[in-house]
User: Fold this.
Amino acid sequence: MTHQPRCAVPDKRPNIGRLRIAPFIGGLLLIPNIALASLCEGLITHNESVVIPKVAKPPYLAAYREPAFGTKVTRITDSKPGEVFKPVYSTVQAWNVDESRMVLYRTGNNSGHYLVDGHSYEVIRQLDIFPSDLEDVFWSHTDPDILYYSSKAHREGGKLYSVNVELKERTLIKDFSDICNGSVTHPGGDVHMQSLDDDLFGFRCWDSSSKEKNYFAVTYRISTGETHSMRMGPGTDWDSWSAPIPTASSKNVWLQGKILTPDLKTVVHDLDMRKFHEHGNLGKTWDGQDALYQVTFDAAPKGCDGDPDKGIGHLTEYNLETGGCRTIINESGGYPYTTSSTHVSSQAYKKPGWVAMSSVGYPEQLKFLDGKKKATTFFSEIYLVNTDPANTEVCRLAHHRSTGKLAKNGEYRPYFGEPHVTISPSGTRLLFGSDWYDSGTVDSYVIELSGYQRP
Assistant:
């Protein structure tokens, strides 16, 4: 049976827990006179296999109740046939700091980045920016009007800009041409954002005048103007694929499995990981320490601090201040082996320790989209994790119903159909993309948790 989406969701919700959110003041989440409630309160937290019910594609700006899990989901974009309109990536925050604005990426005749109202989800306008890659557009963590990007425009290679999206004003932050010799500065093959104080940035680039194409890792701190660089690639100990990634606190950077000082000279920790190119995202632990949350398919060389799963799991936490390792979603906890194409978003910096995840499950997920068979746990799912070791929870939120890389009906790269979930700064909303049973388009969908209150 196909569940038809409703054009509006009644105010009377199912009996799921409500979280009262006070106004954000000075970047802090203040909740007077009440205890902090779990974002998972009242939601599905079991690890059982469930059917993925067939649901017709909801109309633009219409919401429906996810039949398997009971959450409210709204389609917020209206792609034309063959188009994509979705979040840029899991590691890149789609909402600004006060959640009043969003940035989404669109393909087609008017391809580019679009400014979207963060609450009504209506498109405001296309942004006049040409970043080094479609993923390289970063909201400020402190100013709701500011975006950062490194330019790919002609004669602007190697320059970092800020843009005031309300005033439509652009400011040059730093020109790296003395290091990069006109090449594009890029935040690496798996892109991550700047530090939470908007002070420390990390890039890679190359000397375009060199026949050997020498690659460089680059760090830049705005407050002091300090710039540091280090050669990567052939003849060095460093792969040229990735860039140094600032930790949330801006104390250090993560680079290819190691924690380095921002001057790139001292190794603080050598993390116990087999592969450093797995999907992951830097953020904060529940108690405010720098962390990397990563998907892991292979056992840690040293056993992940005695972890029963040896570091293998849908979600592994690396503490970047202690160098410690532990799995959070693992087989010993009753979950399946790590699902293919799982992505991580730990960008809820006002709710540290909460991590959003999306999984596909190639190629088996196709046989579960008929709405008849019970699907393996996490296949075609969006889910949310409380990583506090004393209160660990995994709440299952929605089925994204996307065929992703196996899509055949769209005039776009099928990769664009992967959900790439991203969580809002407050943790009360999750955004993901879906081709909705290979419909020929990719649109964006928002899950609104009970703690979200529209202004």
